[in-house]
Design goal:
9 helices; alpha+beta; Beta-Lactamase
Amino acid sequence: MTTPGAPSFQLTDFISLDDLQSLQDRFAQLTGISTSIRDENGNALTSPTNKPDFCGLIQSTEPGLLACRASHREAAEMVRTGDAPCLAHCHAGLHQTVAPIVVRDHHVGTIIVGDRPRHQLTQLSIEGLSQTTGIAEADIAAAAEDLKPWSDNAWPTAEAVVSAAADQFPAVNSCHSLLAESRPIALPTVFDRNVYIKSPASLKSVAK
């Protein structure tokens, strides 16, 4: 369980943005799914990796971009007071696995993985998105065709993998000398230990 109240530190006090991006990129390469690391409020810290073209299209208009940002804030809020991952549903009909990054019992970041629908988007959903974003229905429908729906088997695997990945961030807390000196830890050294990759096969199954 996380401690309520704002901490006196933030994730980037311990881990540089370059290292966060490197970890995210390599994680996304292993899983084959979209991944982003955000702060405790859902604001982007890294550039999304494996971002679907569908998301890029929706975010190409101001109404779509603002709606996506609101969805990210809601996803971060869902895990603010807990230490377990959860499933989130964005405004555009995509489903994500969300996990908190907790350091010293404080929620300082959020990992969002997925950006996939459970099923192909319906015509009614496409019409609604067109109305709220101002994007032509045909363009939304074409981009949605490239979205790969989550399989029933991939859901629990994705939840377990993203939770295990988030759990590696508290390891920063044990590096007392680095924290005392207020300098970032080289995150790839944590990642290279592969401590959360129990099975490459199971990790790859997230992308199925």
